[in-house]
Write a structure and sequence with these properties.
By secondary structure, the protein is mainly α. The protein has one domain. The chain has ten helices and no strands. The longest helix has 47 residues. The protein is globular and about 55 Å long. The protein starts with 7 loop residues before the first helix and ends with a helix.
Amino acid sequence: MGELIPDPYFLALAFCIVAFLYSSVGLGGGSSYTALMAIIGVHYLLIPTISLTLNIIVTSIASINFVRSGHGRIRLLFPFLVTSIPMAYIGGSLHLPEGIFFLLLMATLVLVALRIYVWDRPALRLNLTSSGKLAVSLLTGGILGFIAGTVGIGGGIYLVPLIIILGLGTEKEAAAMGAIFIWLNSCAGLAARAGNFPDPITILPLVLAVIIGGAAGSFLGANKYEPRTMHKLLGGVILIAIAILFSKMVSRYHSTAYDRSSTLTTWFGVVKYV
């Protein structure tokens, strides 16, 4: 287990906190799960698989709690799901090079941070026709589904404000739909990665951690806490993850550049000697 997941119990504690924060606003936590696993050195091909699995667990709990509280409006999700589910499967079928994976992950995390701190209150309202809302929903669903499949981030953090902007639901309803959206996309992405699944015992501490955190967070989010309060807290998690991950990417780049330089120096030395 230590080989696949370094510091599994520390990671489990961190995931419990992340699951609590994310599930309270109808999200799965995939962005932070993915970032934390990248930081501690989990193999990049396993990161989306584990993240999607945990997304499914957390959003299953969150979906039940939000729907029980009367915030579920499943019909408004249908246009998003038409494109998101197949694109999540396609994204999950891809095996990106390591460098491309981390660049895509970093870009996604930066967009998440911007969504939380710059686009905190989506005051904009789009007065679109029914056909215009359908077009936006189909396009957005496809993009978010692809992101879910490739890096393990469900996309709900972008979907929630979009539902509000399009006038499709309230904040609580948007949070409930975000949880269901992430659940379905994560299932599709994980189905494409079925052959790359780790031993269940390996991720058991992480699963238990997100069950505990997800149950507590979704209950409080559905009944007590305001979404904006919890968004600020999880935004702090994202900013820390971005800083550490960026530092690791820079170190990796310099290490790779040094190795290439050493190889070229050795090669030219051999040529000169010959």
